[in-house]
Amino acid sequence: MRSITCSILILSLFGFSAMTQDQLKIDSLQVSYQFADSDTQKINLLWEMAEQYMTNDYSKALNKHQQALEIATTIDNEYRIAKSNMLIGKVHALSGDYDDALKNAMLGINTFKKQEKHFELYECNILIGIVHDRIAKYDDALKYYFNAINIANKIKTSNTSTKNLREHVLYNNIGNIYFAKKEYDKSIEYYDQAIQSAKSNKDLINLAVHYNNKGRVFDRIKDYEPAQKFLHLGLDTRIEIKDKAGMAKSHYFLCAHYMKLMDFDKALNHAHQSLKLGKEVGSIQTQYNAIYFLYEINYKKGNFKKAADLHVDYKQLSDSMYNSQTMNEITRLKMQADFNDKEAQRKLTVQRTQFQYAAVVIILISCLIVMVFVYMLLKAKAKGIKVENDGLEKDIELKNKELATNVMYMVRKNEMINGVAKKLLELKKQSKDENKRSIQNIIIELQAEVDKNVWKEFELRFQNVHNEFYEQLAERHPDLSPNESRLVAFLRLNMTTKEIAAITHQNIKSVEVARARLRKKLNLTGTDTNLVTYLNSF
Question: What domain count does the chain have?
Answer without folding.
Answer: 3
